[in-house]
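User: Can you predict the 3D structure for this chain?
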Amino acid sequence: MTFLLGSGAGFSGDRTDAAIPVVRELIRRGQPAALIFETLGERTLAAAHRALRDDPTAGYEPLLEELLTPVLDDCLQHGIAILGNFGAANPDGACGVVAELAARSERGGARIGRVHGDDIRARLGEVDLERWEAESRELPGEEALISANVYLGAAPLVEALELGAEVVVSGRVADPALFLAPLVHHFGWAWNDWDRLAAGMMAGHLGECGAQVTGGYFADPGCKEVPGLAQVGYPIIEVEEDGSLVVTKPAGTGGTVTERTVKEQLLYEVHDPANYLTPDVVVDLSAVRVEQIGPDRVAVRGIRGKPAPQRLKTTVCYEGGWQGEAEISYAGPNALARAQLAAEVLRERLTFRAPPELRTRLDIVGHASVFDSDAGDLQRSVPAAAGGDYRLRLAAEHAERRWVERATQELLALYCAGPAGGGGVRRQFQRRVCTASYLVQRSDVEAFATLFDTTLFETKMANERRVAHGAR
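Assistant: Here is the predicted structure, written as structure tokens:
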């Protein structure tokens, strides 16, 4: 029987109502199904570790309650498993949120699986690390280290489902592994059935970025039209036991599923189409066929697999000093010339008002920004227009916050010490995160799953409520 994989989110900060039409469609279809929330990026995970360091009750997906509340009860009532990497740096905390939400549901609770083993920060000095071939950065010292997480495969997720979990919470796993796991669990695929594993992994790859395969991040008016983008439907991937798959979306939603949307997502972040490395299988896309078989229905065939790699990607995140931004607008007659003058004033001021290790970049948004160099060569070479609306942006980076603040203060001073008509200044500062990619031996990783003890959680919540009531 066909298994349905629905996408509820493609990144942290995605639309919190996206899963509603997906779940409705899964229920309407009445077939075995799972709903996947992919909310974790490398810097997202680093931010989560920072949040956990500052607050032991934080560190999981901040929108978790908003994501799950509209769909949790329906999924529990209709046997739709939920899998998500929304545990981030604190899977236990995320399990607690899920348990509390489930306790309020008509079911009055849920079996929650918790995946362990991705966080190896405490063991970083013990494991056999190998620098990824494209990585030039050295490992940071202990004082700068924020996190070190291995991209786990689908096995511990499958283990959680085999334990009876209705909701599976993980930290760092390979994004498509979230989709592969329910397929392996449902169909009973062997861990050396490389072609089927590869097909399942690519089903996940097609669904992992949410609306990116159904018209989001695809629309280009006049070139690639996408209807109803404001209500774009998130993908549903239909997978058969033999690994054949079809990409579609919920009926009545906006967006589009075409050969072009599928091909773009299929090749997204794939460096070598004949050897796409994942924790569970090396995928070969060299003979893939993509075919439109109906409105918003695209079949993908010919995916092949090879044995899984012996090393797993590990992302190390560490403190990178401070970065800041400041902006000011110039509009009206001769606005570009005034913005260019403001940029030159800032460059001159920063040459003698800042230390040489301060890194800066000046962009003129609306004229030359994305394609310009750090030195501003493009903005100098393009002649000024008669008028317009431009925003001068300064970015600054240094190990110490004070120098970033001083640099951005120089832009603030343009209010009265710069060209005419500047306004709308804003400034912000934040700690900078650097990432480095390494490979760890599979044998050094201890990945497994457990069922979250909701009894202990309920006891803890009851005690906290009694304490709060007594305080009142």
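The chain has a mean pLDDT of 93. The chain has 14 helices and 19 strands.
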